Amino acid sequence: MNTNEAIRERHSVRSYEDRAIDKDKIEVLEKEIAECNRLGGLDIQLVTDEPRAFDSFMAHYGKFSGVRNYIAMVGKKGENERIGYYGERLVLLAQTLGLNTCWVALTFSKRKTGCRIGPDGKLFCVIAIGYGKTGGVEHRSRPMSELCRVQGDMPEWFRNGMEAAMLAPTAVNQQKFLFTLDNDTVTAERTGGMYSLVDLGIVKYHFEIGSGREGLFKL
């Protein structure tokens, strides 16, 4: 499975099997996390065999079960967009490895997480990861016409990017983003909603992969 295929196959999963992640897959994830931290100046951490963060009322309210592994999205204040961009890079890698994931912002216990947070660090959210009991389900998307503006005819590469962006996970599936194409220049902005800056980073990564234009956006 390549990354474009992972975009289409990946759905949020909340229930996981009681099964440790294979060591070779952990090694691949750790290597990619190190690269994302280097490129993004972040402090992302993989936490394995740690159930306490999802053993809370909020986690049960969010219908999570069996979560013992997660990626702690740690950075500094104001790095929301990079958190989304590099977190989704890890999410799609996990999908290619046969793992399932779910972005989690509120329905877990930050106090019980097993990550380290420095004095100027911030835990933005976590990504549940493991072997899902199901592959998740597809969610409806808003029409493409509501999510982009194009001057003139829409080129194929831009349409491909939009199709990938429309498959990106966003908070409460609100899709609060807007892409604009003007004379071959693409811009993306948030249009409100909870965690919209993290979401913007996520959809930007999807757009780059779908359009085939890596490094299109500066974060």
Q: Could you characterize the architecture of this molecule?
A:
With 219 residues, the protein is an alpha+beta fold. Helices cover 33% and strands 18% of the residues. The chain has six helices and seven strands, in the order ααβαβαβββαββα. It has helices at 3-9, 23-40, 57-61, 80-96, 156-165, 196-211; strands spanning 45-47, 70-76, 100-104, 121-130, 148-150, 177-182, 185-190. The protein has a four-stranded antiparallel beta sheet with strand order 1-2-4-3. Strand 5 (148-150), helix 5 (156-165) and strand 6 form a beta-alpha-beta unit. Helix 1 packs across helix 4 (80-96) and helix 5 (156-165) crosses helix 6 (196-211). The longest helix is centred in the first third of the chain and has 18 residues, at 23-40. It is globular and about 55 Å long. It starts with a helix and ends in an 8-residue tail after the last helix.
| pLDDT averaged over residues | 94
Taking pLDDT < 50 over at least 5 consecutive residues as the criterion, the unreliable ranges are none
Strand order of the largest sheet: 1-2-4-3
Tertiary shape: globular
Q: Give the quaternary arrangement of the chains.
A: single chain
Distance between the termini: 27 Å
